[in-house]
Amino acid sequence: MLIEPINTRDIPGYFLNRQDEGQAICKEVGAANLKVQFDCYHCQIVEGDVTKKLQRDFAGIGHIQIAGVPERHEPDIGELNYPYLFDVIDNLGYRGWIGCEYRPRAATSAGLGWIKPYLKR
Domain spanning 2-118 has what CATH number? Predict the structure, then answer.
């Protein structure tokens, strides 16, 4: 089971906005199957310092999601350096899936071109 902090620019009034808040809720609930979905897009908008948040909260992360910041397009443009973040995530020992939730700049198939270098990893 996952909970996800989301920025209020995209969803005004959403009650959970920060990674540390999500981690605190999980600790208070105390259920072994409750984790935080770490959405790099939302984290960058609300908090920044994505690498340090990943490192700090790694044990409580159940899923990772990506998108380009600030326009929520493919993760090959914008403020976040995903090749660097993917190395950080690998070095932390993450073995789960990394999901994509973005608005393609063009057609969906064209919007998947960014992933080709990672298919051989």
Answer: 3.20.20.150
Residue with tokens 């908008």: 45
User: Is 4 a residue of the active site?
Assistant: yes
pLDDT value, residue 106: 87
Query: Could you give the dihedral angle defined by the CA atoms of residues 5, 8, 14 and 18, in that order, rounded to the nearest 10 degrees?
Result: 30
- Options 4, 21, 47, 71, the catalytic residue: 4
Query: Of 28, 47, 74, 101, which is the active-site residue?
Result: 101
33-76 residue pLDDT tens: 999 999 999 999 999 999 999 999 999 999 999 999 999 999 99
pLDDT, average across residues 81-102: 96
Check if the beta carbon of residue 6 is closer than 8 Å to that of residue 39.
yes
List the helix and strand counts (H, then E) for the chain: 4, 4
Task: Kindly tell me the sign of the dihedral angle through the C-alpha atoms of 19, 30, 96, 113.
Answer: negative
Are β-strands 98-100 and 35-39 bridged in parallel, bridged antiparallel, or unpaired?
Answer: unpaired
